[in-house]
Amino acid sequence: MKDRDEEILLSPIVRTGKKFYLFIFFLAVLVFIGYFGWAYQLKYGLGVTGLNRPVFWGLYITNFVFFIGISHSGTLISAILRISKSEWRRAITRSAEVITVIVLYIGTFNIILDLGRPDRAWNVIKNGVFEGRIYSPLLWDVFAIATYIIASTVYLYLPLIPDIAIMRDRISKRKWFYRILSLGWNGNDKQKRRLEVAISIMAVLVIPIAVSVHTVVSWVFAMTIQPMWHSTIFGPYFVVGAIFSGIAAIIIAMAILRKVYHLEEYIKAIHFNNLGILLLVMVLLWFYFTFAEYLTTFYGNEPMEMAVFYSRLIGKYAPYFWIMVISNFIVPFIILSNKKTRTISGTVIASISVVLGMWLERFTIVVPTLVNPRLPYEQGIYIPTWVELFLMIGCFAWFILFYVIFSKLFPIVSIWEVKEGREKMLEEAGERMKDYLPGPSGGVKSKKDLMQK
Amino acid sequence: MTRWGMVIDLDRCTACGACVVACKIENNVPFSSPDEASKGRAISWMEIISVKEKESNGFKISFLPRLCFHCENPPCIRVCPVGATYKNKEGLVTQIYPRCIGCRYCANACPYTAKYFNWYEPEWPEDMKKSLNPDVSIRTKGVIEKCTFCYHRLVKAKEKARVENKDLNNIEYVPACVEICPSNAMYFGDLDDPLSEVAILSRSERAFRLLEELGTEPKVIYLKEIKNER
User: Fold this and answer.
1) Which of A318, A320, B39, B88 has the fewest CB atoms within 10 Å, measured from its CB?
2) ipTM
3) pTM beyond cutoff 0.90
4) Which of B47, B61, B100, B119 to mutate to test the interface with A (most CBs of A within 10 A)?
């Protein structure tokens, strides 16, 4: 007595083809390349990277900021859509939330990669947290990211429980695994009510946590007095950039899932259109913040800030900067502002462009400031080496690998939420509509009238 | 309480580099190959940086020995997540090497780029290993290091004074760079003692401090003649 939703959405878990194993093998090789780079770096020290004095931070910190930025896709967007009762969210929240959880681990791992003595990372807890050195912005990061990892994992897990129970009952393989994770869910009213309360509490909690995380990441830079890092708008600027790249990441992931797992019925053009509009809003916000930041610096004309400013606009880092402007603003703006081009492939192209542009943005924030320190006699150069590139490839492959494995263990589209939408929400949304309309009970006579319309 | 500080007279400095060498020998600073040095990996707690100055007929290059300024208000200390860099009770900004995790946040926060990182395991030519200074600990790869105002010399001087029952406020303590300076361009002493040489010089009208506007209050003071070109 399988129904259609379950059949389609569980099929990626039930059936696994040869192509899948080949793809996993390919990703595993890339991850191994990354681990090789790491082993090499651990053996010989950070000298094998392109870092130097004064460019003490490079690709690893860029990737850290980038990945933590991407993490703002899932949990935050999903929470906002849940709270605002946007019914179109049902098919896409799960695939978005997973991105957050995986990417947070990879972002944090990039900090470990960057440490000169990763074997002493425990000191951050031992000497930092326990001895109360709360004045270091890096410790704020530790607290914020740890909270975010826990909150977003719980927020991913809660709506997963009813689906795990479905799998426990329907799927023959890995029964023990699903039995443990389903926590004895049987779908009675008491459990449902509790789950609903838990999800709505988490949805509210997760929003301030997500905003704080990227604010604190920006403060790692803004709390120093280095030119063009010491900026008051860095907090909101980073949060906007994070949500921006996050939405782009969701769109790309959705398009791939739709194609590979044949989810055309679930992830529809309307989802891409709606997220595309949201992305367009972020394009404009991002441009506004960037413009405000650069104009203030330029107008102030402080020599040390101008050194960084010019190295970004016309100097060594101009290619990065202008590609960033094109791919963060011009390309997505043109595509997304036109209804005709805001199609599935249109939004995907815009999203790829945004993800690339946001990576470049992180790079142009981290490196040019360090290349032009306050004492202008100590100029730096920075060219990443193969070790850093290997590790970057490894991190991206690792992300895709974990995402693919998750989609093979759990339904990537929430089964029970889609069902609930179909069974209950049409009526409930209609009732809600009544409240918006003028007159007692919206001037609508009965439920029947409404349903007929 | 003594406030150790240094005065460097730029009009006397010949940029001979003796201070740089003396510092490296005194503090067991590892060697680096020319290739690594060109990448900006060389460690040199004391460094002579060249400053290009505009003159009426072209440019003039002048030199400026740059070490850690042991700021009163150091930006590097606040950002350290493990307390590896701290201001000790003598007011010197020092580093606990075994605690440092090598995140290099302090190095990025220092406006004077006075901090150095051990990109590799430190190395010396075989013959030189025997002449390493036993008073200064050897750093491992992956930690930050910088000038300590030869703190080990202060510890030693205090011990000596204690053994000889002398006044602890009147001890002989100068860093290696000041000791070696052949043109007597460097002075070291207590900035809080109004009659000390450094305090008198620091009040001179030739005195200035680097990037003073940042409010870091460096304890290294430069002297340079003020020119009125017109």
Assistant:
1) B88
2) 0.91
3) yes
4) B119
